[in-house]
Structure formats: structure tokens, C-alpha cells
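Course exercise 7: structure representation. Students receive a sequence record and must write out the corresponding structure in C-alpha cell form. The form below is the worked example handed out in class, using Hpt domain-containing protein (97 residues). Read each field label carefully; the graders check that inputs and outputs are placed in the correct fields and that the protein name is recorded exactly as given.

STUDENT ID: A-19
EXERCISE PROTEIN: Hpt domain-containing protein
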Amino acid sequence: MTYEHGTIDSTLAAMAGDEPAVIQDLRRAFVDGMTRAMEAMHMADDAREWREAALRMKGLAASVNALPLMTLAAQAAEREGSDAQLLDRIGDQVARL
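STUDENT ANSWER:
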């Protein structure tokens, strides 16, 4: 599963218009949100907390058309609890942002 810079960039451009500084701010906010969701998943004490963090992540990914991340977050939300390997795959995708 690969990350497509163009898809997110075009979505952010559609949101912000031709304002590179605004696009950069939106990208930074997106990455920060994804990082916080990953941290919440790492710290989840039970299946409910894991699922809530995964659903937040899925929503964030959907908001910028990040389909690979949205797919991984959806898979995480379907788990009955934490899944370290899946979280590592998500982390790899976020690192490519």
C-alpha cells in the first residue's frame, strides 16, 4: 500500500485554494492529528479506546482523501483490541507524509 502525495495535495489545494502557506498548515494539522490518533491507539487500555482512536484516524484520513490510511484505520477499527503490526503499518504510512 503506497501513499499518494498527489491525492492529499489536491484535496488540500481544493480546501485552501492557491495558498501554499495554508496548504502547508493544513498538511501539518493533518499529520499532527494522525500522530495523536496513533498515540491514543498505542495507549489504549481496552478495545473501546482502540476503536475510538481508529475511527478518529479513519475520519481524519477521509477528510483529505488519504485512502491507504483510511483503509488501514478501518481495519484497525474492526479489531477487537490493539494490533501492533497494524499500528506499525499505519506508522509507516504516516511517516511518508
